[in-house]
Amino acid sequence: MVTLHMGSRPAIFIADRSLAYIALIQKGAVFANRPPAPATSRVLGSNQHNISSSFYGPTWRLLRRNLTSEILHSSRIKAFGHARKWVLNILMNQFKLLSKSGDPVRVVDHFQYAMFCLLVFMCFGDKLEE
Fold first, then answer.
1. Is the pLDDT of residue 87 over 90?
2. CA nearest to 86, candidates 42, 113, 58, 117
3. Where does the record place it (predicted)?
4. What global pTM score does this model have?
5. Residue 3, φ and ψ in degrees, nearest 5
């Protein structure tokens, strides 16, 4: 077992199969936690109260349960099929409009906007204007 500090975070490498089993299966909760966020991220962000940065524990389990039962449940996915088509049309229209100019397109911004539109519709039932 080797720990290397790469940048600001340590990286743990386990070469033995039995040690990996102990670390990941038997003692998994010890390694499942996330490091504390820097002070600037806590002030500007959500103070580690979202599913991607929350500490392993009751808050993370509640967020995960809500995500899987409300957003990612198969009945909810089917129910919002029309919203996904609407968001896909927004995305495609933006790409068509930007492709005519011939300039490079930063796609990540448009995907983030599309996902934001979808989440706003799923949470609040409101369609955002383009």
1. yes
2. 117
3. Membrane
4. 0.53
5. -115, 125
Beta carbons of 113 and 95 less than 8 angstroms apart: no
- Residue 38 predicted with pLDDT over 90: no
Cβ contact 94:117 at 8 Å: no
Token pair in block for residue 127: 């369609």
**Position 16 confidence tier, pLDDT thresholds 50, 70, 90:** very high
Q: What are phi and psi of 6, to 5 degrees?
A: -110, 105
Provide DSSP, the chain: -EEEEETTEEEEE---HHHHHIIIIITHHHHHPPPPPPHHHHHHS-TT-STTTPPTTHHHHHHHHHIIIIISSHHHHHHTHHHHHHHHHHHHHHHHHHHTT-S---HHHHHHHHHHHHHHHHHH--PPP-
Three-point CA angle 14, 64, 24, nearest 5° = 15
